[in-house]
Amino acid sequence: MKNRGATILAIIGAALLILPLVMHDTFVLRVLTEGIMWIGLAIAFDVIAGYTGYLNFGHGAFFGIGAYTIGILMMQANLPFWAALPLGGVAAGITALIAGIPTLRLKGAYFAIATWALSRAIQQLALNVEFTGGPDGMRLEAFLNPQFFYYLMLITVGVIFATLWYLLERAPFGLKLKAIREDEEGAKALGLNPTKLKMQSFILSALPTGILGGIYAYWITFIDPSSTLGDLVSDQAVVMVVFGGMGTLFGPALGAILIFAFKTLFWAYLSDFQLLYLIILGALIAISVIFIPNGLWGTMVKRKAGATRPEQKAEPASEPAALSAVAAPEEGN
Amino acid sequence: MAEPILKVNSVTKCFGGLTAVDDVSFSVEKGEIVGLIGPNGAGKTTLFNVISGYYAPTKGSVIFQGNDISGKPPYHLAGVGIGRTFQVVKPFAGLTVLENVTIASFLKHPKKADAERHAWQVLETTGLADRANVSAAGLTLAGRKRLEISKALALDPSFLLLDEVVAGLNPTEADRTVELIMKLKAQGLTILIVEHIMRVIMNISDRLVVLNFGKKIAEGTPSEVSSDPHVVQAYFGEEAA
């Protein structure tokens, strides 16, 4: 099962890698690049929302901060792209750290409202200060190479996916975050520091989002407060993750692919009805919360087969051995 | 006798104008089971929350193994060897039983594979191994109380605070839990237990501390305490005394 999953992933990865060599349609490449970006945004959002249980409605702010950081550093400080890119992630991470101190004390809807308000405030800031170009936005030096951006996005999202997979599914960190999501008070008694874990999770969610924002800015070459700091980035991420399945990595990826495909088709054929798109997004989130609360992926996999008892395959753990592991002193029955 | 493992020094805990725990002192020696009893609202759970770091005492101090731990956060206390259960059980409902216990095992076993192996051993001890892959939300009350104990044990604590782990169980389940507690004592664990079921608390405790309206009204062996007029009065009213 696990090996089959890895094989499927490897095949998809290989197909995506060779695709631009056989396919030269710029429009398709562009759509794929953005689709891959959305997978990255959705899984990064899921770190804080799905694994940790803090629904962040300001995810778009990290994206915009990454985009603006790269824009400002490249155009005003004349930094090369490769030097500016990691700083976009760092800027988003620092924003998460500062924003997290007050907001991570809030729970549920209050956290969602606070982060939403914060992202609105950051958007207003970008509209009103000089160095962002205000409402006119900012034009970056154009580097028109669709293949380059396709590969850059693919590799970046691949690295993000692998890193999050390791941290959340392989290392103890993911399970600790889920403990926070399930019961913060109970988690404290087990030696977990919720404040620290929530902060780590928030930063881990923000950092890759900032980097993706930076790549987006250089790729699209034009950023303004409504395209990168608007509601739509956050809202789409929320719908993708809730629809796909929170607290997993494949769920948000699946949600991202489906929602983005829908968006692309909608834009292609019904671009006169943009408001309708938002209405459909809203309806979709309501429907998925009511009918598939575990999301598509969560409903598909249900519960995994589960781990096996160790002694079934190896040494039979005798009663005294099991006991002495629990309480250090020697047995004394 | 050696230095007590836990010393509660004149602990007072107020919530606004309400004094929930009023100048309570007692100590627990290594390896013994001390029962904390008292009528509803006597302040037992509040005292538990002070000892386990959920509340800072308003006055007084808690000394654990010679160190002042008053006001230290719970996750710090878990690290120094204090495990606790909750009267209102706190399972991580969306996770499996094994995952619940593994999270506690991380404290002493930072590697996931080691933590899981350790969690299995704990589940064997507490009799939940058969339910390891079940969602914690799917456990019965008895199972959830057992899961509470399992999580506390997975911390490899030297001192265990058990808050009503028997209440609400049927007699067979209660006997199994008592058996487990005695087994843990035999392993050298020190236990402070709050319990309402007198049959249980009288049998397993070496000593009892009795609270009423936040004050300590008696302390001693179960037989001493059960004949103490203050205790009889607190439980049965003026006339019985």
TrEMBL record, chain A:
InterPro entries: ABC_transp_permease, LivM-like. Residues 317-333 have a biased composition (Low complexity). It is found in: Cell membrane. Residues 308-333 are annotated as: Disordered. The keyword Lyase does not apply. It holds the Pfam family BPD_transp_2. The keyword Transmembrane helix applies. Its main location: membrane. Keywords: Cell membrane, Membrane, Transmembrane, Transmembrane helix. The chain crosses the membrane at residues 6-23, 35-51, 81-101, 148-168, 202-220, 240-262, 274-292. CDD domains: TM_PBP1_LivM_like. It is a multi-pass membrane protein. It comes from the Bacteria. This is Branched-chain amino acid ABC transporter permease. It comes from Geomonas propionica. The lineage of its organism: Bacteria, Pseudomonadati, Thermodesulfobacteriota, Desulfuromonadia, Geobacterales.
From TrEMBL, chain B:
CDD domains: ABC_Mj1267_LivG_branched. One of its GO terms (molecular function) is ATP binding. Residues 6-238 form the ABC transporter domain. The keyword Protease does not apply. The keyword ATP-binding applies. Gene3D superfamilies: P-loop containing nucleotide triphosphate hydrolases (3.40.50.300). It comes from the Bacteria. Keywords: ATP-binding, Nucleotide-binding, Transport. InterPro entries: AAA+_ATPase (IPR003593), ABC_AA/LPS_Transport (IPR051120), ABC_transporter-like_ATP-bd (IPR003439), BCA_ABC_TP_C (IPR032823), P-loop_NTPase (IPR027417). PANTHER family: AMINO ACID ABC TRANSPORTER ATP-BINDING PROTEIN, CONSERVED COMPONENT OF ABC TRANSPORTER FOR NATURAL AMINO ACIDS-RELATED. This is ABC transporter ATP-binding protein. It comes from Geomonas propionica.
